[in-house]
Records
---
Amino acid sequence: MKFGRLTILLLLIPGVAFSQASSGQAGEVQYVEGDVFVGDELVVVDAEKPLVLKLKQRLRTEAGNAEMLFALGSFVRVGTDSEIEMVDAGLTSATIRLHRGSIIIDVFRVWGADSLKVLVGESEMVFTDGGEFRFDLAADGMLSLHVLSGKGVLSALGNDQKLKKKQLAQLSGQGIAVGKFKNFPADSFTAWHEERAETILAAIPKDQRRKKRVGYKDGVFHEARSPFGARDLPDRSSAGL
């Protein structure tokens, strides 16, 4: 299996402990700040021993943030006082469950139909096009899902709601309400997400940055404008799709 140059270049970021033994597998914890736990164990990123969440393992934050591979070239960033669970993991596919708090999913490439998912309660979000997606789960169970870019399908309460760029979906026991928005909420988590994304982008030489995200729809790959990625991420055949 040929790994993408994005994963390799991440190893070169000063002051960040990315493992040189990186598997590129979904669930690999790439970066943490503050208090982050897997089970009851405090997470310490070790460049020689990458930590990969096993199925059904949970990662939770207290006064901290975490960044984890969601799939090859894509990331899940976890806000403070949040908890996620690894449900399914592979090189180009992943499913996580949000139990509480906030996450931002930065999807570079959707490798196949239903390959990338987020579960919240009885609902399911399937990504169909690369982009940035923020999930906020309130204490009362209401889910707010901001689609800054990209596309996906939110399935809940017997309905399938297609979502696209600049749409906000709010899910409660009453159903799914969809509206519009301009930007992610202006808070410290959004600022941290943007900082991490810029750090990763800065590690990739300009002439090697991909100009498009690649999505998957109705069995066919299609592309949407985007600033980053790597030219030599595996194609469908090398990814086993």
Note: The first helix runs from residue 5 to 10.
---
Amino acid sequence: MGFMLPDAAMLKVLKLPRRHTTCAVFLFGALFFILLPGALSLTDEGDALDVQPGGAASAPAISIPGAKVMRSALRLTTPVLPLLWIAGGLSTATGRVLGEAHWVSDTMAGACLGAALVSVAAMVDKSAARVLRRLSAKP
């Protein structure tokens, strides 16, 4: 009983890093750490989120009912989000290795690249939010 490796045809093809794992890690990370918290933190008061479409001050506000409940649920599940992120990437990488389509080291490299891309995207998101807050605060 040996360790499963890709077949001989796979050894002739250079496919580092693995796109499936990179994309899975990036998409789960962006969803859990950038998009979901950003969408639910538009405002902290009231029972509905009031969003101005396109940033226009004269446009009617869009209300999202139950936003207070969604924010509370996000705060309760925040410790679980990293585990869900790891599970999403790990399940993709495991499926690729068990399907004898990729090497373990290549899927690990793809996961590291996906995590790095999420980190860069989160830093850009925070920087952009800071700049937009400064610009909107000026008269």
Note: The helical segments are 8-11, 19-40, 67-77, 81-98, 104-137.
